[in-house]
Every structure is written in structure tokens, then in C-alpha cells.
Design goal:
Length: about 100
């Protein structure tokens, strides 16, 4: 098991400090980051926490997965590597409409 956790279904008001506070009850935190929309600065509703050990990460999963925070049930599990996305298609094809 790894010590990097995915945290999903976060309230949109959640920030890095809130994440740090919620997970600190389960051990030392190396980092806590809520992912934010680039344009609006609003939370995307998920983030990542890196605990200092695998045991602490497992304790955080067991303690927080499914817990209600801000009316939302948290999803907490081991983070997986990002999968490659297929190239984007569709949209404007580069040719101007004549109408």
C-alpha cells in the first residue's frame, strides 16, 4: 500500500488547511492539496493527501472513508497513477463556415 491518498466528494468550500486538519488526527501529513479550478479558483471537489507512513494512510482510509463532511460522504482510497487520456477530438475543425 502507498501512503498517497485520493480524497473525493469534498465540499466545494474545502481548502488545503481543512484537508490537513481532517487527516492530522490519523498521523503526520507530508502534504495535503485540494485541486482547484484554474480559471475560477473554486475547488474541483477532490484532492490528495500524502501521509508519513503506510500505516497512517490505512488508518486515515478506515477512519474517514464514508464520513460526512459538509453534507457529503468522503471517498478516501489509495491514489493511483494518472491514466493517459485519449487525444481530444471534435469541436472546431479549423475550417470556417461559409454561412
Amino acid at each position: 500500500m502507498g501512503n498517497r491518498l485520493y480524497v473525493g466528494n469534498l465540499p466545494y468550500s474545502f481548502r488545503d488547511d481543512d484537508m490537513h486538519q481532517a487527516f492530522s488526527a490519523y498521523g503526520s501529513i507530508a502534504s495535503a492539496k485540494v485541486m482547484m479550478e484554474r480559471d475560477t479558483g473554486r475547488s474541483k471537489g477532490f484532492g490528495f493527501v500524502e501521509m508519513s507512513s503506510d500505516a497512517e494512510a490505512q488508518a486515515a482510509i478506515e477512519g474517514l472513508h464514508g464520513q460526512s463532511v459538509g453534507g457529503r460522504a468522503l471517498v478516501v482510497n489509495e491514489a493511483r497513477p494518472m491514466e493517459p487520456r485519449p487525444p481530444r477530438t471534435g469541436g472546431f475543425g479549423g475550417e470556417r463556415s461559409r454561412y
